[in-house]
């Protein structure tokens, strides 16, 4: 009998070699366990639900990497950064906790991922519900998680718009009616060059009746800081005013506190129908800055204003699963609310625009005296997301199988960013604010509607053909206010308003734009099984990302971009399940790339930059040749380049000699003459952010020691190749590349049926790797490429966490 999706939580998850997938086996009787212990060494089978059915991973014709509960614990995974390291096809940029942007297979253009820019190209799901907000996914603490699945390549037919390049699925452990049990873990750790951290976690699974159970999970985590904010001063040229950062000087500046919980109730209504309501929430408070500053020593910055983010969210979800006749039906609905209150330093912007353009001369008080032009940001980003999916699937044992349904989601982002210069005159203060030189107060709404379906037919016992499609419609708009006071600018901000305020808290409305479109994506797959242990497949699939709005009035909306994926793959389990080897080779054609960058006055602009081609391969290998010893490795290679010249103003001919639209004359208004175009990157330029090669290897040896106690040793290494930081060739030497690096982890410990103890060290050799770079304003301003200021450019590099040594103890009952 096929196992329905609602029964997956009766599967007990076991460990997985890194870079491979979820290992699972059903709970065994003592006799069966003894028989299994006496069996020769072999890799366990792997169960996933990537295609929204319960399947053996080796039967699924998709490139998937997954980690189960035990493997997540073995790798000391507690958040996104931890498991992302071990996903070879994944790359990311980060600005700290809750600020990671994820990419698969080199699909990255180095974009500015802010509130008014493109949607993510990678979708993230919590169980059945999407949790990708407009500025990225939630930073979920990983504990009591059944598995994390990473699906590389476009997943547009089953997962939609936010899965243009891939999908990450975080699957929680569900309540079980069979028994009462629980667990708790405590960890302490110390970070080189930094402070001490600790984690407390626990869960309880409690049956309520024969057909109902509840599962409650809680956690608290303190991450030690390791960036030092050192003393410094800035002198603004226009006024000669000098300020220092004495009140913000602090060692181990960037500590983080995270706490949250999850509660799920499972009710078996009868033998066919199950309902699972769940609520999960988390609060994460981060202090300081998470990058090191150019021109200073490692792990040092000089920041001049308060820096703090309070990221809190909750998601309420409901999953209903059952049968209508022989067909399975699933409804998955959720409501997510997230609020991020922030304080950020913006003194670089203030200093460089004063030093290079004399902006400081315009900032005066009511008496006409120059004031300190120092800027800082106080922000509130409020997100809501509502999603609904109704899905039907035919019996898995049928020769012809169907899965499909309806999907709808609406996500809103209420954006408030106050750019503050203390004590400026009322005449240059944005109306309704205390001391804002600039205000962004906007409401962004993104809507998605879709009908989707896939049909798989077993043409023969060995040959299967799958056809899938998704018809979608997006409807996105952006309304509100952004800009200066009318007394400061005669062309932008309040001076450009055309109506009364629509968004509460704004002085008036100068932005009201929308874009919508209807289209479809497809997937065609052919799979041939040589036998139960070896299959090959070929896939042609398409992913998409919706278009959106440019705030700058002279720029049109940007259009959708698409990825066409051509992939062949091999999945094999060899030598009596002692060896597992999976391989995928692919070409991605990325068309109408959405590229965002900082334009004039630090305002984000998004252009469709042209096309790119990515050719690559990824593999995972697992070996269990003798009892106790497991070795695994995974890697990916991506040759990602643009195929046409990227011009400042795109045109169908990709010819940068063709003038752009008539946007700015000498007075900033149209003058009837096309603006000069510019070659920003020639054809053949490498796409940024993703290394040509990323790989990992993990070896683990388990052995019995005494009674029911077992011990282990584990060592792992992750290599990340050299990466560029921007598509534009003139910007690259200003910002600099991200060098290659290798980190090594080591752990050892012992466990019994009830207790466990573990010592570990992450980043054993204390490597200062770079995972991202950023800058506060335009690269040609804050980067100071001409050396016109006395302090030089300020580039910030986000480092890997320094060597971390920890001890963890746990109990299960």
What key attributes describe this structure?
7 helices; disordered N terminus; 813 residues; Maltoporin, Chain A; mainly beta; five-stranded mixed β-sheet; 22-stranded antiparallel β-barrel
Overview of the structural elements:
With 813 residues, this protein is mainly β. It has a single domain, classed as Beta Barrel (Maltoporin, Chain A). It is 5% helix and 51% strand. The protein contains seven helices and 46 strands. The strands form eleven sheets. The chain has a 22-stranded antiparallel barrel. The chain is globular, with a radius of gyration of 27 Å.
The CATH topology comes to: Maltoporin, Chain A
CATH 2nd-level architecture = Beta Barrel
**Which structural class best describes the helix and strand composition?**
mainly beta
> Cα-atom Rg, whole angstroms?
27 Å
User: Can you tell me the CATH class?
Assistant: Mainly Beta
The helix count comes to 7
Strand content: over 45%
Largest sheet properties: 22 strands, antiparallel, barrel
What is the fourth-level CATH superfamily?
A: TonB-dependent receptor, beta-barrel domain
Envelope shape: globular
Number of domains: 1
Distance between the termini: 32 Å
Report the mean per-residue pLDDT as an integer: 89
Helix content: under 10%
Low-confidence stretches: 1-39
| Total count of strands | 46
Record the SSE blueprint:
Blueprint: E1 12-14, E2 23-25, H1 30-38, E3 47-48, E4 55-56, E5 64-68, H2 69-74, H3 80-84, E6 90-94, E7 100-104, E8 122-126, E9 129-130, E10 132-133, E11 136-137, E12 145-152, H4 156-159, E13 166-172, E14 181-191, E15 196-209, E16 212-223, E17 228-229, E18 233-235, E19 242-244, E20 256-268, E21 274-287, E22 292-293, E23 300-301, E24 308-324, E25 327-345, H5 347-357, E26 376-393, E27 400-420, E28 436-458, E29 463-483, E30 511-531, E31 534-545, E32 561-574, E33 579-591, E34 594-598, E35 604-608, E36 612-626, E37 629-642, E38 646-647, E39 679-681, E40 693-706, E41 709-720, H6 732-735, E42 741-751, E43 755-762, E44 770-774, H7 779-782, E45 796-799, E46 804-812
């Amino acid at each position: 009998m096929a196992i329905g999706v609602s029964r997956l939580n009766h599967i007990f998850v076991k460990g997985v070699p890194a870079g491979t997938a979820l290992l699972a086996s059903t709970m065994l009787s003592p006799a069966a366990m003894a028989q299994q212990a006496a069996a020769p060494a072999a890799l366990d089978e792997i169960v996933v639900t990537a295609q929204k059915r319960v399947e053996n991973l080796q039967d699924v014709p998709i490139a998937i990497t997954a980690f189960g509960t035990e493997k997540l614990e073995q790798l000391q995974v507690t958040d996104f950064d931890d498991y992302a390291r071990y996903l070879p096809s994944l790359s990311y940029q980060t600005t700290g906790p809750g600020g990671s942007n994820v990419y698969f297979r080199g699909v990255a253009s180095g974009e500015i991922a802010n509130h008014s820019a493109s949607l993510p190209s990678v979708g993230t799901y919590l169980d059945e519900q999407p949790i990708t907000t407009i500025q990225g996914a939630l930073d979920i603490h990983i504990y009591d998680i059944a598995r994390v699945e990473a699906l590389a390549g476009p997943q547009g037919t089953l997962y939609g718009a936010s899965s243009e390049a891939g999908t990450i699925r975080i699957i929680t452990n569900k309540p079980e009616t069979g028994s009462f049990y629980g667990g708790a873990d405590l960890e302490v750790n110390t970070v080189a060059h930094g402070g001490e951290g600790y984690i407390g976690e626990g869960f309880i699974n409690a049956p309520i009746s024969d057909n109902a159970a509840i599962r409650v999970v809680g956690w608290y985590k303190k991450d030690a800081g390791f960036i030092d904010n050192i003393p410094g001063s800035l002198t603004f040229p226009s006024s000669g005013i000098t300020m220092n950062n004495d009140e913000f000087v602090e060692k181990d500046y960037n500590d983080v506190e995270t706490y949250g919980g999850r509660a799920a109730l499972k009710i078996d209504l009868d033998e066919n129908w199950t309902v699972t309501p769940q609520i999960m929430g988390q609060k994460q408070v981060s202090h300081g800055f998470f990058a090191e500053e150019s021109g200073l020593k490692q792990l040092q910055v000089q920041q001049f204003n308060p820096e703090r983010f309070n990221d809190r969210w909750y998601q309420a979800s409901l999953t209903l699963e059952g049968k209508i006749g022989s067909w399975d039906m699933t409804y998955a609905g959720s409501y997510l609310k997230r609020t991020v209150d922030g304080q950020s330093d913006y003194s670089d912007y203030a200093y460089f625009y004063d030093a290079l353009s004399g902006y400081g001369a315009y900032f005066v008080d009511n008496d006409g005296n120059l004031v300190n032009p120092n800027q800082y940001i106080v922000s509130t980003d409020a997100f809501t997301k509502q999603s609904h999916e109704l899905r039907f699937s035919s019996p898995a044992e049928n020769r012809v199988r169907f899965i499909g349904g309806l999907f709808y989601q609406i996500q809103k982002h209420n954006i408030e960013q106050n750019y503050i210069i203390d004590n400026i005159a009322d005449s240059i203060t944005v109306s309704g604010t205390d001391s804002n030189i600039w205000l962004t107060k906007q409401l962004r709404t993104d809507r998605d509607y879709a009908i989707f379906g896939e049909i798989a037919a077993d043409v023969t016992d060995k040959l299967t053909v799958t056809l899938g499609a998704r018809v979608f419609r997006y409807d996105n708009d952006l309304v509100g206010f952004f800009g200066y006071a009318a007394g400061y600018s005669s062309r932008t901000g309040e001076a450009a308003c055309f109506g009364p305020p629509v968004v509460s808290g704004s002085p008036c409305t100068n932005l009201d734009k929308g874009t919508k479109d209807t289209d479809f994506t497809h997937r065609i797959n052919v799979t041939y099984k040589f036998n139960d242990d070896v299959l090959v497949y070929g896939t042609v699939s398409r992913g998409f990302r919706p278009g959106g709005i440019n705030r700058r009035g002279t720029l049109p909306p940007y259009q959708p971009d698409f990825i066409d994926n051509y992939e062949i793959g091999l999945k094999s389990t060899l030598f009596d399940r002692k060896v597992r080897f999976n391989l995928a080779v692919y070409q991605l054609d990325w068309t109408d790339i959405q590229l965002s960058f900082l334009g004039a006055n630090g305002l984000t602009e998004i252009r469709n930059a042209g096309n790119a081609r990515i050719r690559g391969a990824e593999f995972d290998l697992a070996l269990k040749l003798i009892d106790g010893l497991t070795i695994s490795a995974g890697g990916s290679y991506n040759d990602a380049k643009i195929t046409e010249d990227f011009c400042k103003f795109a045109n169908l001919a990709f010819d940068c000699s063709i003038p752009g639209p008539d946007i700015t004359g000498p007075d900033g208004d149209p003058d009837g003459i096309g603006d000069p175009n510019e070659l920003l990157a020639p054809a053949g330029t490498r796409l940024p952010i993703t290394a040509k090669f990323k790989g990992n290897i993990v070896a683990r040896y388990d052995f019995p020691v005494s009674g029911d106690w077992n011990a282990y040793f584990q060592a792992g290494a992750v290599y990340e190749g050299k990466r560029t930081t921007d598509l534009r060739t003139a910007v690259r030497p200003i910002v600099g590349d991200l060098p290659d690096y290798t980190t090594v982890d080591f752990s050892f410990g012992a466990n019994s049926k009830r207790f466990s103890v573990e010592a570990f060290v992450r980043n054993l050799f204390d490597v200062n790797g770079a995972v991202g770079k950023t800058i506060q304003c335009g690269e040609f301003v804050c980067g100071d490429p001409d050396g016109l200021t006395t302090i030089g450019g300020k580039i910030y590099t986000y480092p890997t966490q320094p060597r971390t040594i920890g001890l963890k103890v746990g109990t299960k009952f």
